[in-house]
Amino acid sequence: MKRVILPVVLLLTMATAGEQFAMSDADRAMYKEMLENNPADIYVEEGGELLEEQLGGEAALAKFLGVSEKELPKYIAGFPRYIKKLGNVVGIDQVLQAMQVEQGKEKYKLKSEKMFSMLAYVKSLANDEQIAIDINADKYIKASYDLGKKTFETARGGRGLSCLSCHSKDIVGMVLRTQPLPDLGEAGAGATWPAYRMTKSSLRTLQRRFQGCMKNALLKVIPIGSKEMVGLEVYVSTLAQDKKQPIAIPGLKR
Amino acid sequence: MQRKIKLLTFAAMLVSTSSLVNAADLTKAYEMPNASKLIEKDLLAPAKTYTMPKGCISSDATSIARGEFIFHNLNGKKAKQTPPKGLARFIEVKGKDGKVKKKPKQYGNCVACHNIEGAKGGGNIGPDLTGYKAMFIDTKVRDNQFVYQKIADPRVDNPKTHMTVNLTTKLFNEQEICDLASYVVSVKK
Predict the structure, then answer these.
(1) Is A37 on the interface with B (CB under 8 A)?
(2) Is residue A248 a contact partner of residue A188, using CB atoms and an 8 Å limit?
(3) Which residue does chain B place closest to A19, by CA atoms?
(4) Mutate: best of B73, B150, B162, B168, partner A, most A CBs <10 A
(5) Which of A92, A124, A156 is the last residue before a domain boundary?
(6) Cα A235 from Cα A145, distance rounded (Å)
(7) Which residues of B touch A86 (CB under 8 A)?
(8) What ipTM was assigned to the predicted interfaces of this complex?
(9) pTM of this prediction?
(10) For chain A, is the Cβ count within 10 Å smaller at the N or the C terminus?
């Protein structure tokens, strides 16, 4: 596994945030410690073993995707993407499910811990690459991006909020109950999940993180793997792509 | 020998046809649940104008206390103190199976975005509401009806507002909006 170097900017913002913010000094000390020793490393490693035992490792994955092993990291950096034999724009996790089925194995649920681990491992193969989603590659990815953007901007739920209510350019850095609002592009959200979430003491994926925001803001939580969720992942990933944030898995989050 | 080759070719054919079937099947081999209905039912209704009901904003201490509690807390499960008279921690909702379930009552969590007297960890996405009466009501910059409308549905004067919608979404009822407004315009210590 390639080691990840977390963006210095992120460290700085977390390390300099004052009293009013959600991270205490003790938390920050722990955060620094974890940077050198991300607790999620073991999940990523476990994911690598699962991929090997279950599916035949990177070689099998490359073959399934129709690329060489050498091309694999760059190709992975382009997910979610349209995979013809799956008939949809899909995430890496859905590709892994299809491989399991093709090999006559029982597929892991998208929301299972094992799938989170395997997904984290596969995405970590692309560490240090830039996200490379070409939204003009075909009409499917374009549609997925459009759906994601629309989902991001759609107000709903008990408080009438959309993702954009809290993640628009004009309020980045403002404080929502002790939490500074991140710029999802600068924060490299699309490039740093799966990540270890300190407040949840577990490995979480990007789509799982979306669900967290939905739950907190009283938007109906939509299921992982739905077209809207994949679209959101495409959209949010392109924000990190625009800011040239390199892939760095596993991330480390408050 | 012949037989063996025949068998082998037969086996090979089987394998290749079964992988053909699989290849076709792969479009259904992974989870892709449908979320569009969930979203459809959850959509926010268009902006709505409201007229404050009679006697809405009052100096009644229990109304102000409820408003204060809703303002500073997220929901009935997270609230540390016991809610004041007339405000519940939990509400009962009928599930799809017809069974009645207890759910934490959602409050306003207004403090997430607004500072105000006594706020703990107040946010700054919305304007500071400290000294609101002296600053806005007494100076006639705002009136009670404006405050009521802003809390009920803030979109009428700002379609792109970052603020939550509280009455049009039915998260609160009229009385609760009045409680909140009464608290905002009250004189605080």
Answers:
(1) no
(2) yes
(3) B121
(4) B162
(5) A124
(6) 5
(7) 26-27, 29-30
(8) 0.88
(9) 0.89
(10) N
